[in-house]
Amino acid sequence: MHLEGHRTRAAGAAGGQFLRFLLVGGLCTALQYLVLVTAVEWGGVDALVASGTGFALSAALNYLLNRRYTWASQTGHRIAMRRFVLVVGSGLLLNLLGMRLLHGYLHWHYMPAQVLTTVVTLLWNFAWHRHWTFATPGLVKRGS
Fold this sequence. Notes:
The protein has one domain (about 15-135). The protein contains 4 helices and no strands. It has helices at about 1-40, 45-70, 75-105, 110-135. α1 (about 1-40) packs antiparallel against α2, α1 (about 1-40) runs antiparallel to α4 and α3 (about 75-105) packs antiparallel against α4. About 25% of the residues are buried.
């Protein structure tokens, strides 16, 4: 019974964190898409370059909001920032590979390609940030 209660609380906590992660991510994604569309439509910039630039620009806001609002992390900035950079770097790589495949090779319009790529990257980032980047030291248990 005790284990079942722990699982229920953990699932509830994860659900609340995911909702906050989506809100923060939505704001940061809006910034990325604003850069993407503006650069492509008004600046004539290649969609891959514009997507990567927007992704990178939204990362700083994403770190600050997620650290404080989503995770209420007690992990020191030095550790959390290094981890964040690694996770976001891998997310950027996923973003660029997705855009290269969908837009560059399969010739999808850049917006549907970016939306699908965003969903994959969002799930990747949530899992890594929850269990590693912003995990509270000493509270992370094996198998959780």
